[in-house]
Amino acid sequence: MTLAQAVDARLRKGIGRGEFFAVIWPSRGQEAVAAGVGAALRRDDRLVTTYRGIHDLVGKGVPLTEILGEIMGKSIGASRGKGGTMHITAPEQGVALTTGIVGAGVPVAVGLALAAKQQGSDRVTAVCFGDGATNTGSFHEGMNLASTWQLPVVFVCQNNLWAEMTPIGDTMNIDQVVDRRLAYAMPGERVDGNDPEAVHRAVTAAVERGRSGGGPTFIEAVTFRFEGHYFGDQQKYLPAEELAAAKEADPIPRYRQKLLDSGALSADELTAIDEDATAQVEAALAEVLAAPAPDLAELDQDVFVNMEGIPS
Amino acid sequence: MTVLAALNAALDEALAEDERVFLLGEDLADPASGVNHVSSGLSTKHGADRVLNTPISEAAIAGAAIGAAIEGRLPVAEIMIMDFIGIAVDQIVNLAAKARFTSAGRTPCPVTIRTASFGGLGSGATHSQSLEAWFMHMPGIKVVVPSTPADAKGLLKAAIFDPDPVLFLETTALYGKRGPVPTGNHVVEFGKADIKRAGSDVTVVTYGRGVYDALDAATALEADGIDVEVLDLRTLVPLDMPAVLESVGRTARAVVAHYAVEFAGPGAEIAAQINTGLFGQLRAPVARVGSRFRPIPAAKDLEAAVYPNADRIAAAVRATVGYSK
Ligand SMILES: Cc1ncc(C[n+]2csc(CCOP(=O)(O)OP(=O)(O)O)c2C)c(N)n1
User: Fold this and answer.
1) ipTM
2) Distance B316 CA to ligand 1 centre (A)
3) Do B72 and A115 touch (CB under 8 A)?
4) Is the pTM of this model over 0.90?
């Protein structure tokens, strides 16, 4: 959580000051979901996420230089700058795909899980998406197929209550996104997405179900995005009371307090964790900023394996 | 062997050769074995876990195939009729066609999407289109259109084992065409156009159904003393422009023919490249014969009037040969 927050904070600070250029969809406020999901997955479990997925990538253990480098279009990025924020792939950490098309990752996650089953592996695939994505055809086709074929997929809806500038109530006539699973006879639950332990418990149970052949699970994690849809979003559409109430439930100070109250960690230990996160981000950032831009020759690689007969 | 049997044989062999190969699509399993019956007998022989029946979910069929391909499987997804591919286009163009590039080679996606152009059967506007130009326009996916049984088998084998995504476009009207198919492991390399008829006066550059119209036109034109070469592209991406330029370089005249809509169709690109490559050597402007810019009508006569045919190709050839500056 701390690391995801540190990455997001540093990016916003750097872009805001004009220190560097990067394209981001801020995930401040949603860190508890990413932490809960990431910690419940094995390294070889697969993750599919979205443009608003930097926190998910951090949670899955993708090296910061790969994330920051890709976001900034540098040669040391995950895809040497050819992917960008919306298309980060990190196979070594199990990140199969990041999608910029709302809802599109859902059927692909089903295919990743199908392959695991065919290969006799107990790998599980988790797919993260927003509440808005659950209005797409791809989402419903994917849910139905995963349920019909009983595949090891964990569907994680990061319900931040907004899709771009439209509140959830304007786009669906149900009270809870989790109800959508009922049409597919899929087990699942709605959890407090600002409580990393609640998310972790739910995802862990879902992962165990998938690993043991019990099929897919749908989890709705209710949370909020504090910075709006895109970097610099003034959020004129967002009632001030709603934002204030959401900030009351900010997962970071809340979890910090919980750890202190329970005696799990001391204030000093928590501060040390924060400092370590900041230091990690600064070190990675320095490396990324010093790295060269991708070579133009990159454009002639990786469209196809063999580029013969391919238009230039 | 028919084109249909050749396609079936390619799938059968691929399933037998490599456990990573599997098929998925609507109604594929026996006894239905798909609307087009290309998968006839395959679930019985190879098992229901190798030939998967799916719901009517084109996005999920393509998406699941793409996901499995990313994991190293060799899925062959069937989109029953090409017109339905619109529902899966997002998955194909935004995920499959981009997976290798956006991951800088870390996430290859060796998926094969088979689909059929249903045209010529009077099925009307949403069951008759030839939409290959959409996919030619999209870097990252190969586009294959076989015309003969031998090519159908050899190209499908190549598609399944190709390391990149392939759109394999069949033509329902050609399923019954017969021809010899080499025995053994017959694979036709992508990007190699094939001279289906040698000639010296004019080259008709075509593929798929257009090959047969061009051959018919060539036979008719013999009476006029016009010797037509018919060049079958076989794959549109990669496109064998060296073969096109070699042939047209010899004949100095070209007609490009296809069932896709002529306006902004594949012929526009090919004609432009011939023009660039052979300007000054051409004895006539490159002519194009494609479908008229109309939704495909259902009534037989109307449908026929929209599509290219041997007469329209012959007329274009005559005009090209008779052209004088
Ligand atoms: C298919 C598609 N339509 C529209 C968009 C533009 N768009 C980008 S993000 C977004 C909102 C998505 O909302 P949600 O799924 O709730 O995710 P969130 O951004 O809230 O995390 C939209 C409409 C898109 N990227 N893809």
Assistant:
1) 0.90
2) 49
3) yes
4) yes
